[in-house]
Write a structure and sequence with these properties.
The protein is mostly helical. It has 15 helices and two strands. The chain is elongated.
Length: 369
């Protein structure tokens, strides 16, 4: 019996060897496949955790951006009011001076200038801080990446502080330059409009559009120049020397300028300005009320029409519009988040731009050396 089995094995020896090789190969192939699947699963899990961590850090960074904007609005408002002090003119008018008309003319220019400047500077503050804090946020993500401790941090605390101090240009020299340009445009638009002349909301919108066109189409002074000093000496001065910390700061400033030179920046700033000036006009529209309806005509269905439909035909004397527009700065630059700043912070273009900036600086292979 055993001999017959042995003879059978000898006759089919090659088949057994081949079958064994195949079965062994399948076993090891299966073991290899399971190993690779496990590695792939572990890699996917690691990438998912990293992506979730990155997303959480990004969202936290955006909340920081929003809080920083709101916290800086009182300083911005104070800077504008100090440079465009209409309150002193209002106080003089209460004394019934002999040159009352002249003071009213000054008040007209200052009131429109400071509201227009408030819109511009608030929009600039929102976009500039979105760039700065997302550049820092991206570098901080890299600096704190698990398993990748940097030899030299990209954004140590002292560099962050020095870099963010460059926002003072917008609150200082940049704001002064912006006021000069806007004031000239306001004068060109409103000098021929007397105090007794009535303006409709549509006419008011046209004047603001003319002012904007003159400010925004000046080729020698782009809007970005009000947000950040644009020459190398000024950047070096802001960074206060050539220490390692200062070199990092200058690099951050230059990277910020690169972002401000991009088409996306202009798109986002334009979207913010459009939303901001629309909100300003919406605020002004609340004061253009239609006259009270005659009780004798309440039965007429026409009197139940939307009251806003009559706004284009309603006019107010410029002398009554001046105090209204003069007070808009308190709404625009309010430390209590209102419709104006909330609409800017929640703008989809702003959110997408912020995500792109953060992504650029939180991706290792795209770190700017």
């Amino acid at each position: 019996m055993f001999s017959s089995i042995w003879n059978f094995v000898k006759r089919h020896k090659r088949k057994f060897i081949f079958t064994g090789a195949v079965l062994g190969g399948v076993y090891f192939l299966g073991k290899y496949a399971r190993s690779k699947i496990r590695e792939l699963q572990e890699k996917e899990a690691t990438e998912y955790i990293a992506q979730a961590r990155r997303q959480f850090h990004f969202e936290s960074n955006q909340r920081t951006c929003n809080m920083t904007v709101v916290s800086m609005l009182p300083s911005l408002r104070e800077a504008i009011v100090n440079k465009l002090n209409s309150e002193s003119l209002t106080a003089i008018l209460k004394t019934r001076p002999t040159n009352k008309v002249e003071i009213w003319e000054d008040l007209k220019i200052i009131s429109f200038t400071r509201s227009v400047v408030a819109v511009y500077s608030t929009c600039m503050l929102v976009v500039l801080l979105r760039i700065q804090l997302n550049i820092i946020g991206g570098y901080l993500y890299l600096d704190n990446s698990v398993g990748k401790p940097p030899m030299t941090p990209q954004a140590p605390p002292e560099v962050q502080q020095q870099y963010l101090s460059s926002i003072q240009h917008l609150l200082g020299n940049g704001l002064t330059q912006l006021i000069t340009v806007v004031k000239k445009s306001v004068q060109n638009s409103l000098n021929g409009v007397c105090l007794k002349q009535s303006l409709s909301l549509l006419e008011l919108e046209q004047h603001i559009s003319w002012i904007r066109a003159e400010v925004e189409t000046c080729p020698c002074r782009p809007l970005s120049s009000y947000m950040m000093a644009d020459d190398d000496n000024a950047l070096a001065d802001q960074a206060c020397g050539l220490t390692e910390r200062d070199v990092l700061t200058i690099r951050l400033l230059n990277e910020t300028r690169d972002m401000m030179d991009s088409p996306d920046f202009n798109t986002v700033l334009t979207a913010c300005l459009q939303r901001g000036f629309t909100r300003l006009l919406d605020n002004l529209a609340q004061f253009f009320h239609p006259p009270p309806a005659d009780p004798a005509h309440h039965t007429d269905p026409a009197h139940h029409a939307d009251p806003h439909s009559s706004l284009p035909s309603i006019s107010l004397p410029l002398a009554k519009i001046i105090p209204i527009i003069n007070g808009q700065i308190n709404t625009i630059c309010s430390e209590t988040p209102g419709h104006f700043v909330q609409e800017l912070l929640s703008n989809n273009d702003v959110k997408e731009f912020a995500a792109n900036v953060y992504d650029s600086f939180s991706t290792p292979q795209e770190v700017h050396k």
